[in-house]
Amino acid sequence: MKLTLASSKFDEQQMIFTAEIVERIKLKLQEAGVNGEKLEDLTASIALSITGVIDDMAGIEANGLEVHPYLTFRTDDDELIHCGENAYTYEHVYAAMKKLFHA
To answer: Taxonomically, which superkingdom (predicted)?
Structure first.
């Protein structure tokens, strides 16, 4: 598999990925009966927590082993794109929230 640096393409896919995470969180909370301002607050809180893990900001460690995720996206069968650094999905949470809750 080929790993390709493609920052703008990565950012586009990262925005879509983050929006999907936020939307799925909202839907699951709605299914659980959460609504109104609490729905928005919990969606944002959970989304920021998850994206912090994806972006390697969470300090993951188990049994003395540190875990450092590095987000990539598959563009075809033999290529992965990356941005050359840790992902920054958390920066896209607010735009996704705005679209879902204030559109």
So the answer is: Bacteria
Q: Quick one: tokens of 66?
A: 């540190």
Q: Is 73 left (phi over 0), alpha (psi -120 to 50) or beta?
A: beta
Q: Which has the closest alpha carbon to 22: 97, 103, 101?
A: 97
Q: Taking the CA of residue 102 as centre, how many other CA atoms within 13 Å lie in the half-sphere pointing to its CB?
A: 7
* pTM flag (> 0.90): yes
Domain residue ranges of the chain, discontinuous segments joined by +: 2-59+66-102
Look up residue 97 and give its two tokens.
């929230």
SS (H, E, C) 54-90: HCCCCCEEECCEEECCCCCEEEECCEEEECCCCCCCH
Rounded to 5 degrees, what angle do the CA atoms 1, 74, 66 make? 80
